[in-house]
Amino acid sequence: MLIFKMALRNLKLNKLKSLIVGLIIMAGTILAILGNSFVDTLSFGMKKNLINSVTGEIQIYSSDAKEKLSIFGSMDGGNPDVGHINDFHKVKTILLAGVPNIKTIIPMGTNFAMFNPGNILDIKLEELRALLKNPNEDPGKIQILKDHIQAIVLDVVSGYEINPENMSYLMSNKDFQEAPKNLKIVSEKSFWDKFTSNPQEVIEFLANKLAPLIFDDNMLYFSYIGTVPTLFQDSFPLFEVVKGSNIPEGKRGFLLNDNVYENMVKHRVARRLDTIKKKIEKEKMTIAKTKELQEKIKANISEAAVIYTQITPADTKNLIIDLQQHLNSQKQEIRDLLQEFLAMDDQNFFQRYQFFYAKIAPHLILYKIKIGDVFPVNAFTKTGFSSSLNLKLYGTYHYKSFESSPIAGNFSIMDMMSFRELYGFLTPEKRKETQELEIEMGLSDEQESMDAMFTKSRPLESEAGKSQNLKGLQKHSMGEGNKKRNSWEEVYSREAMENGVFLNAAILLKDPTKIEATIEAINLISKENNLGIQAVDWKDSAGIVGQLTTVVRILLYLSIFIIFTVAMFVMMNAILMATLERAREIGTMRAIGAQKSFILSLLIHETFILSFIFGLIGMSIGVFIVLLIGKIGIPAMGDVSTFFFSGDRLYLTLNPIHLITVFISMTVIALLATQYPAWKALKISPLEAMQKRE
């Protein structure tokens, strides 16, 4: 008790030095609590998001995989080579029977796809072809479409120019070499007179000679997951259909991520306006002060043509009147009116935004693919050949709480049967079709079969005739045959969807706390039953995305270590100065019989009291800040951060274990900082200290 009272007295006598050391302890405690809370909340949110959206607690894939599974892609942007497993039904049956903790197994596979809907001229020409095929079609409707096509073409003629920077490329491209001649042809009245006598000739000329001259961002690229869509929806709680519906049970189809649909498929002027609106409302940006928004406004003005070329001449006349009234303008040309309209600022943006969707958008192709459309999905098989399937777009989906994140929007959804076919694995129907072709082409043995092309079987024979037949068969299977059949109308049972090849599978557990034990059990059963699979947890299967929290935590701990190290030296210096200033006092105590152990204990008590008092203050402030942020949240800066924040704001949480750990750590650091000053104090001799003046 005496030493405790003496320690308190000494701290009061050296208030400034005590306050400096105490503030350092307090600041370190606050930073450590906030940092740990931030990383814990981030880690928990990412874990919840990944497990409940795509990875599950565990992923399984081939034990013979050449590369590690990374659902979100590898460092080079491609999909890793994880091989495949032949029989999902067998794997599912054995695992469910042998591992009681498994709740659900969802078959999967990932790949890239592309789709080119064509530019506005391609689309309108295709519409005209469809109308002309119907002998009972209204001639007035056909004439309206012809007038629209003519307006599009004449706009191309009036605005077409060759950029000298691209001259070398243009001169090597036949379409552009012939562009001046072709533009002159379509400018003449005689060309359009042929629409009555020979419409097909006009259509083909425009499709082959004029449409390639129109540049547009038509090509769409997206990643997709092949799975059982209804099982996927039932298994992952964050999955939510936004537009349309999910792919029905047993049907082929496609489900786009809503983020892709709104930011890639939507009309580019409309999506820029949506982005500006979002930035203004959510991020409190202004057009006047934000270069990013100003660039979007300029891009819209320069691309007014992508609006008026989509509007029929009759609708254009009405829109001109509406724009003149809305802008209070006397301009007569739709191009000039639209450019004036799109030159938006902070004062008129929301008014013009509403006008755009009320008066202009109804006349546009607002989405390149509409819900319910059947469109060709082009992909590459695992052997590198092009493959195509016509699939119906049933709807769009997102993951609740981080809807706008591009990371969450990385994947669209496809039924497993279509995925297998696009990836190069034969369905029973496709196998039957190719067997008939094999018989017809004289390819009968296993070595020459289509199965050999898509498995690890023996190499194909290289006899000239058979090789030629095989190339023809391969060409048929890789696209031409796909385009001829209405694959989107085919129906399959759940058993057929689940049976067959898969690349990887998500496993959801009854008890998520037993991930490691379940992984061990799966790997053991795989060896015992020769399943050829390996299991990894959600973090490893997500690849670099799953490792981000570990990286953030390492960086945090490194930062805290540096801060604590600096704090320790600052405290050491402050304590040393305070100790040396008390040299006379320490010498006097030594002279009257105080042992070195007593002096050491006194200094340690002083530091411990400082650590306890200011550590508690720092912990209280840190807890208060965490609880405050836990209520109001930290706003996400940009769409990417919404994935890591699990929404638009990050709400911090407390971990009692970390509070205790931080408090003990700061106390230990403070005590370590005392050691050198204490050692210096113990070297002071009583005689030397007594001789020093105050």
Largest sheet data = 6 strands, mixed, barrel
Q: What percentage of the residues does DSSP assign to strands (E)?
A: 5-15%
The amount of helix comes to: 55-70%
Which class do the helix and strand fractions yield?
Answer: alpha+beta
Task: Quickly count the helices.
Answer: 31
Q: Mean of the pLDDT scores?
A: 81
Shape: elongated
Distance between the termini: 28 Å
- Give the strand line-up of the largest sheet: 3-4-9-6-8-7
Give the tally of β-strands: 13
Cα-atom radius of gyration: 36 Å
Which oligomerization state do the chains in this entry correspond to? single chain
Low-confidence stretches: 162-171, 444-484
What is the compact description of this entry?
With 694 residues, the protein is an alpha+beta fold. Helix content is 60%, strand content 11%.
Structure characteristics:
alpha+beta, 60% helix, single chain, 13 strands, 6-stranded mixed β-barrel, elongated, 4-stranded antiparallel β-sheet, 11% strand, 694 residues
Q: Can you offer a commentary on this structure?
A:
By secondary structure, the protein is of the alpha+beta class. Among the domains are: about 1-50 and about 545-690, no CATH class; about 120-215, no CATH class; about 265-365, no CATH class. The protein is built from 31 helices and 13 strands. A six-stranded mixed barrel has the order 3-4-9-6-8-7, surrounded by four helices. The chain has a four-stranded antiparallel sheet with strand order 2-10-1-11, sandwiched between helices. It has a two-stranded antiparallel ribbon with strand order 12-13. Strand 7 and strand 8 (about 385-400) form a beta hairpin. Helix 4 runs antiparallel to helix 5, helix 4 runs antiparallel to helix 10 and helix 13 runs antiparallel to helix 14 (about 290-300). It starts with a helix and ends with a helix.
